[in-house]
Amino acid sequence: MSFDPATLRYDARGLIPAIAQDAETDEVLMLAWMNAEAVARTLETGRVTYWSRSRQAFWEKGATSGHVQELVEMRLDCDRDTLLLRVRQTGPACHTGRRSCFYTAVRDGAEVEIMAPG
Amino acid sequence: MSFDPATLRYDARGLIPAIAQDAETDEVLMLAWMNAEAVARTLETGRVTYWSRSRQAFWEKGATSGHVQELVEMRLDCDRDTLLLRVRQTGPACHTGRRSCFYTAVRDGAEVEIMAPG
Question: What is the CATH number of the domain that holds B83?
């Protein structure tokens, strides 16, 4: 069955959440959003391109920072309303300089930083 | 710094996306949604509880199927608008009987099933 980005289920803003996971280590790096055109661009170019909700613009990950995400494989879930991107990440995925955006854990009711920049 | 679910950033519906990841294998199992009360219940009980958008009700994962998710650790991202749940999953996470909801890959422009039920 051939894949058409239009057959995914987007929210009222026309967006779908995309989880980026390191294809080598399986670490979850970040979650960002895509519209149908971002999905198509990502598949065409092999460079992960999101839709920035704050800037209302395409966001080719790493285009300015160099911290690109090369697409290894795109997967969709049973409801077709979430994407899982298996990626090869250059440098940190997080704008804070950390490998992953999920560097804060809740332990015994407190927030704990579990990952340092760098 | 003590953790208060009210300090997370929820969308216009009062919801935040939560990624469930197998704490042992690092496999991404599913993505579902929580409101502040679901976050609090999950932390209090150690049983992952989502908010069902279709049923508009709390959804204690596995309450009827037995396919519960035991919380190992909750993490939040840099923007405080996405949760990563490290879980111990009993049985399949997906309602289709597959371990993960992300059983469809896009390969060479086609949808390919990469995981069987059971």
Answer: 3.10.20.810
Distance from CA of A72 to the nearest CA of B (A): 10
Q: Is residue B99 a part of any domain in this protein?
A: yes
Instruction: Give the annotated binding-site residues of B for Zn(2+).
Output: 78, 94, 101
Q: Is residue B118 part of a domain?
A: no
Q: What pLDDT shows up at residue B30? A: 98
Residue A108 within any structural domain of the chain = yes
Q: State which residues form the domain around B66.
A: 8-113
Query: Any CB–CB contact under 8 A between A113 and chain B?
Result: no
**Annotated binding-site ranges of A for Mg(2+):** 77, 79, 81
**B chain contacts of residue A7, beta-carbon cutoff 8 Å:** none
Q: Which long-range contacts (CB under 8 A, 24 or more apart) does A103-109 make?
A: A103/B75, A103/B78, A104/B75, A104/B76, A104/B77, A104/B78, A105/B73, A105/B74, A105/B75, A106/B3, A106/B43, A106/B73, A106/B74, A106/B75, A106/B76, A107/B73, A109/B2, A109/B3, A109/B43
Q: What is the nearest CA distance from A67 to chain B, expressed in angstroms?
A: 17
Q: Please, which pLDDT band fits residue B31 given cuts at 50, 70 and 90?
A: very high
Number of domains in chain A: 1
Flag whether A118 is in a domain: no
**A81: nearest CA in chain B?**
B31
Tell whether pTM > 0.95. Answer: yes
